[in-house]
Write a structure and sequence with these properties.
Strand content: 5-15%
Radius of gyration: 20 Å
Strand order of the largest sheet: 5-2-1-8
CATH topology of the largest domain: TIM Barrel
Largest sheet: 4 strands, parallel
Helix content: 40-55%
Shape: elongated
Bound molecules: zinc ion
CATH architecture of the largest domain: Alpha-Beta Barrel
Number of helices: 7
Distance between the termini: 39 Å
CATH class of the largest domain: Alpha Beta
Structural class: alpha/beta
Length: 174
């Protein structure tokens, strides 16, 4: 084997080891971090075992004109689970926060959750993790902690009704 081949073999091996390390670290991080559940709302079926194993529930305030505040029984049930609750869009239209929204729009969602649970949300996760620059400012100006791609990557995030392209059983595995 000549020198060039030896060097390229070494580089190749280093890359493989590097990627494998990243993979294992990410696996461990996701395993140890808290679990989250997206798309929690009265209009979307959600298995009890998903609600149980998640630590953070991301609630859609007004999905398909199903305002959470109008379903007190549901609100009390979610409260009784004693989980951290975050705001997940307002209506959860496709890439809802990819287009600029105003204060009034955001307030509607915040009020829904406040009327439902008795407290204002402190965290926000945009649907499909899509958010425009102006909306980032809007969320931050409202003192909402914004969760984006890094959060989805470093936590096991399940979806009610298994609606995401990454299925819940895959999330369980990795
Ligand atoms: Zn969602």
């Amino acid at each position: 084997m000549n020198i060039n081949k030896k060097v390229s073999k070494k580089i190749f091996l280093s890359i493989i080891i590097f990627l494998l390390t990243i993979f294992i670290l990410l696996f461990l991080l996701r395993l140890l971090n808290h679990r989250e559940l997206d798309d929690v709302t009265p209009g979307i079926q959600c298995d009890k075992n998903l609600l149980d194993k998640a630590n953070v529930l991301w609630v859609i305030p007004n999905f398909n004109n199903n305002q959470v505040s109008e379903n007190k029984e549901w609100c009390n049930y979610i409260l009784s689970l004693n989980k951290t609750i975050g705001m997940h869009g307002v209506t959860h239209e496709f890439q809802e926060f990819g287009t600029d929204k105003n204060q009034e729009y955001l307030d509607k969602g915040i009020k829904e959750l406040e009327d439902c649970f008795g407290f204002k949300p402190e965290m926000f996760k945009p649907p499909q993790i899509k958010i425009s620059k102006n909306n980032v400012d809007l969320i931050k100006n409202n003192n909402l902690e914004l969760e984006e791609d890094i959060n989805q990557m470093t936590h096991k995030v399940y979806h009610c009704s298994d609606s995401d392209r990454i299925k819940n059983w895959v999330i369980d595995l990795f």
